[in-house]
Amino acid sequence: SEVRSQDTVFVIGGATSSLKGRELAWKFVQDRWDELHTRYQGGFLLARLVQFSTSGFVEESRAREVEEFFRQHPAPAAERTVQQSCENIRLNAAWLARDAGNISNYLKTRASL
């Protein structure tokens, strides 16, 4: 109640800049989904909330978790965003699997300079 309703989504999104923040934001959204869905049910802020709370994930298991959550908690106003978020999670997972070793090696060589 201390944060304006239209600003809540951006406060949650701001928390996602770190690994721990992403975990906490996603858990917050899951734990308070009924309240958040009621608050933002028909507007673009619901889609933003989904986007902000899932965009940092990089594992296939997270994509499945997000899909399962929204199967159990339908959000027609954010359905496209859920699909896009899961696609982005999968793309990030594939990129990480493909390039993590090269990036790690590069950073190690740069650190030794």
Automatic annotation (TrEMBL):
<dbReference type="GO" id="GO:0043171">
    <property type="term" value="P:peptide catabolic process"/>
</dbReference>
<dbReference type="GO" id="GO:0016020">
    <property type="term" value="C:membrane"/>
</dbReference>
<dbReference type="GO" id="GO:0070006">
    <property type="term" value="F:metalloaminopeptidase activity"/>
</dbReference>
<dbReference type="GO" id="GO:0005615">
    <property type="term" value="C:extracellular space"/>
</dbReference>
<protein>
    <submittedName>
        <fullName>Puromycin-sensitive aminopeptidase-like</fullName>
    </submittedName>
</protein>
<dbReference type="GO" id="GO:0005737">
    <property type="term" value="C:cytoplasm"/>
</dbReference>
<dbReference type="InterPro" id="IPR050344">
    <property type="entry name" value="Peptidase_M1_aminopeptidases"/>
</dbReference>
<dbReference type="GO" id="GO:0008270">
    <property type="term" value="F:zinc ion binding"/>
</dbReference>
<dbReference type="GO" id="GO:0042277">
    <property type="term" value="F:peptide binding"/>
</dbReference>
<dbReference type="InterPro" id="IPR024571">
    <property type="entry name" value="ERAP1-like_C_dom"/>
</dbReference>
<dbReference type="Pfam" id="PF11838">
    <property type="entry name" value="ERAP1_C"/>
</dbReference>
<comment type="similarity">
    <text>Belongs to the peptidase M1 family.</text>
</comment>
<feature type="domain" description="ERAP1-like C-terminal">
    <location>
        <begin position="2"/>
        <end position="90"/>
    </location>
</feature>
<dbReference type="GO" id="GO:0006508">
    <property type="term" value="P:proteolysis"/>
</dbReference>
